[in-house]
Amino acid sequence: MAQKHGKNYVAAAAKVEAEKAYALNDAVSLVKEIDFAKFDASVEVVFKLNVDTRQADQQLRGAVVLPNGTGKDKTVVVFAQGDKAKEAEAAGADVVGAADLVQRIQGGWLDFDVAIATPDMMAQVGRVGRALGPKGLMPNPKTGTVTMDVTKAVSDAKGGQVTYRTDRDGNVAVPVGRVSFDADKLAENIKSISQTVLKARPAAVKGTYVQHVSISSTFGPAVSLDVNSL
């Protein structure tokens, strides 16, 4: 059954030329103009990649610190003990713990955005993997969240780090800020994640790697980007 859109969405979509791929700056300005949410909506960029995600070497996963942050305050927890726990607290982590933190999560607490762990804690963290994994919260070396350098990991997470990964269909969706951001700051964030995705091109990919890129606000219609303007 076809999805019905409200009148605000229809009015916004009417301002977007369906077949046009907009230059980056024009696309950002348009997304800001047509946003109709009654709150400061998130802006997201989506890459459609020519990758076969059934092949392990064609799956993208990683993290990047956006130059202008995401506009969201993140709650960060750290699994650590001893000096590393003190280091995490000094770096500004919201919750630091070991077995006690594992117990709290086992009890159903998941009110945080990023989980970081020192390597020696991963055996304990594994006990709550089933709770963390589906939420995208499981610490992972590829995203810099399993590390001995907890100071850097916490400051990156607090300072606008975003993680990216391909979904089953080869799409990568990443938040790049808020509608209230200056257009040039949004554009800079989009360029930053675009360069990261381009550099991560798997060696096995043949032909066109980036097939389509679009940006949109939380409720707004997508605006196609001219890949060359990235």
From TrEMBL:
One of its GO terms (molecular function) is rRNA binding. Keywords: Repressor, Ribonucleoprotein, Ribosomal protein, RNA-binding, rRNA-binding, Translation regulation, tRNA-binding. GO terms for cellular component: large ribosomal subunit. GO terms for biological process: regulation of translation; translation. Belongs to the universal ribosomal protein uL1 family. Protein L1 is also a translational repressor protein, it controls the translation of the L11 operon by binding to its mRNA. Binds directly to 23S rRNA. The L1 stalk is quite mobile in the ribosome, and is involved in E site tRNA release. This is Large ribosomal subunit protein uL1. It comes from Leuconostoc pseudomesenteroides. The gene is rplA.
